[in-house]
Design goal:
By secondary structure, this protein is of the alpha+beta class. It has one domain: 2,3-Dihydroxybiphenyl 1,2-Dioxygenase, domain 1, CATH 3.10.180.10. The chain contains 4 helices and 16 strands. The chain has an 8-stranded mixed sheet with strand order 2-3-4-1-13-16-15-14. The mean pLDDT is 94.
C-alpha cells in the first residue's frame, strides 16, 4: 500500500468559519435595486427585511444588508464572485443605457480579468469570474479588503491569529503589505496597507461566525473592547488591537456569531439572473452552478 504525503495544514479552516454579510447604509431602495439586483444580478431575500427600511441581498451563501439611511462607504474593496463576467458586463451596460443610475457614483471598468465596479454611493467592488481561483464558490463574497495604515498589517495578522485562532499571514503585495486572514474554506479578510488618506470610520460592519465563541469574547471583554452583548449567541466589537502592545490598529465593527446562532447556515434563495421572459428556460429560475 502506497503512503501518500499530504499537506494536512492546507485543509485547516481556523476558528472563523464564515464571513456572512457586509452591512452598509444606502439612501434609496429603488437605486439599490437597479444596482444590486438588475446590474450585479444578485437576489433580494424574499423572506426577511422586505419593507422599505432595509433590504437583504443574497449572493450564494453570503449577503449584503442594506439599511435605508444616509449612505456608508466601506474603506476598501469587496471581492465578489459571479458566474460570468461577460453577462455581468451586459447587465451593467443595460443599467447604463437605461440611465437608471445617472447622477450617482456608479461606474465600472474591465481590468485584468476582473471588473471593478463602484456602487451608486461609492463602495468599491472587484468582480471575479467563477473558476479555479475560487473553486468552491460559483457565486458569493470571496473577501473584504480593507485599506489600513502603514505598519499595521503584521499586528492585524497577529490579532486574528492569537485572538480568533484564524490562519493569518502577511504578504508583501508589491510594496503594500497585506494581512490575509483565512475565513472558512474559501473566504478571506484582507487588510492592505496604504499611504493614502483613510476616511474616518462611518459605522459599516461585517458579520462572522466562529466555532470557539467564548475564548475570543473573553479576551476582548477583559480589555474593554466588546461594544455590545447582543444575546447569548452574538456580540460585537470594533477595534482590532495588537495582542502584545494593546495598540489599536484598525476600526470596523465585527458582528460575531456562534455556530448556535439560529441563522447559521440559513439557506438563501438565489435566482438565475440570465433567466428572462423573452429567453425563458423551463426550470431555469433558480441559480445552479453552470446555469448561466
Amino acid at each position: 500500500m502506497t503512503t501518500m504525503a499530504y499537506d494536512r495544514a492546507s485543509q485547516d479552516v481556523g476558528n472563523i468559519v464564515a464571513l456572512e454579510h457586509v452591512n452598509l447604509w444606502i439612501e434609496d431602495q429603488r437605486i439599490s435595486t437597479a444596482f444590486y439586483i438588475f446590474g450585479l444580478g444578485f437576489t433580494r431575500d424574499p423572506y426577511l427585511m422586505v419593507n422599505i427600511d432595509n433590504m437583504w441581498v443574497n449572493m450564494g451563501k453570503q449577503q449584503f444588508h442594506l439599511i435605508t439611511k444616509p449612505p456608508q462607504v466601506l474603506r476598501g474593496t469587496i471581492g465578489l464572485v459571479v458566474p460570468s463576467l461577460e453577462r455581468l458586463i451586459a447587465r451593467l451596460d443595460r443599467v447604463r443605457e437605461r440611465k437608471l443610475l445617472d447622477g450617482t457614483k456608479f461606474e465600472y471598468v474591465h481590468v485584468d480579468k476582473t471588473v471593478l465596479v463602484t456602487c451608486p454611493w461609492g463602495n468599491k467592488m472587484r468582480m471575479h469570474a467563477a473558476g479555479p481561483e475560487f473553486p468552491d464558490m460559483p457565486i458569493g463574497m470571496a473577501y473584504v479588503e480593507f485599506t489600513a495604515a502603514p505598519g499595521t498589517a503584521a499586528g492585524i495578522a497577529k490579532f486574528y491569529d492569537r485572538v480568533f485562532e484564524a490562519a493569518a499571514t502577511v504578504a508583501p503585495n508589491g510594496g503594500s503589505p497585506t494581512a490575509r486572514v483565512k475565513v472558512g474554506p474559501s473566504q478571506e479578510l484582507r487588510f492592505k496597507e496604504t499611504k493614502a488618506p483613510i476616511p474616518d470610520y462611518d459605522g459599516h460592519h461585517i458579520a462572522i461566525y466562529v466555532a470557539n465563541f467564548s475564548r475570543n469574547h473573553d479576551w476582548l471583554a477583559a480589555r474593554g473592547l466588546v461594544t455590545e452583548e447582543s444575546n447569548p449567541y452574538q456580540y460585537r466589537f470594533n477595534w482590532i488591537a495588537d495582542p502584545d502592545s494593546g495598540q489599536k490598529l484598525f476600526e470596523v465593527e465585527h458582528e460575531v456569531r456562534s455556530l448556535t446562532h439560529p441563522m447559521y447556515m440559513r439557506p438563501l434563495v438565489n435566482r438565475n439572473p440570465s433567466q428572462t421572459q423573452r429567453e425563458f428556460v423551463p426550470w431555469g429560475d433558480p441559480f445552479h452552478p453552470g446555469a448561466e
